[in-house]
Amino acid sequence: MRESKCPVPKEQQPTNEFIELSKSKIFSWPKTKKSLIFVLVKFWLGAFVLFLVISSGSVYFKTYLFKYILLSFFSSLSIPLLISLRLYIGWNHIFKRLISEKVEYEESGWYDGQVWEKPLVLKEKESLIASIEVKPILKNLIQIFSIISVLALSGILIFQYNNF
């Protein structure tokens, strides 16, 4: 965006927001599916160990070792679930700003919100960025979020309907 024609502050321009989000250490994880899965598995294993320690204080689970381990296994899925949800919310926000025909921005604070309509050239450029760069990231995040959700829900069902 050109400074002279665009009233939107540089840090609030969707293209610049995309670049900043891409440079972010945490939000760059979903750029490749392998790296995101690797990071989420590391968080899940760390949470699993933490949840094992937390649930070891229960007298009930000391008598049922298998149930104790399964409970820690399924409850520790909440950490990667929350991480993937946060990543999805951030990338979805950028996606919506890139494909939007208008840019909402604030000149100096929350009280003076403005709206600027993008010129056609900028709409096309940002739409291309959204479809080529951001859409695959969102697709990967939805797939991973769905897999984690199914695993967590299956764990809930196992504990709900089995007496072992």
Number of helices: 6
* Overall body shape: elongated
Total number of domains: 1
* Beta-strand content bin: 5-15%
What does this entry look like structurally?
- The chain has 164 residues and is mainly alpha-helical.
- The chain has one domain (10-101, 115-161).
- The chain is 69% helix and 6% strand.
- The chain is built from 6 helices and 2 strands.
- A two-stranded antiparallel sheet has the order 1-2.
- The longest helix is centred in the last third of the chain and has 42 residues, at 120-161.
- The radius of gyration is 22 Å and the shape is elongated.
- The termini are far apart.
- The mean pLDDT is 88.
Provide the fold topology.
Blueprint (H helix, E strand, L loop, with lengths): L13 H10 L9 H23 L3 H5 L1 H11 L2 H22 L2 E5 L6 E5 L2 H42 L3
Antiparallel strand pairs: 1-2
Helix pairs in contact: 1-5, 2-4, 2-5, 4-6, 5-6
Q: Concise description?
A:
The protein is mainly alpha-helical and 164 residues long.
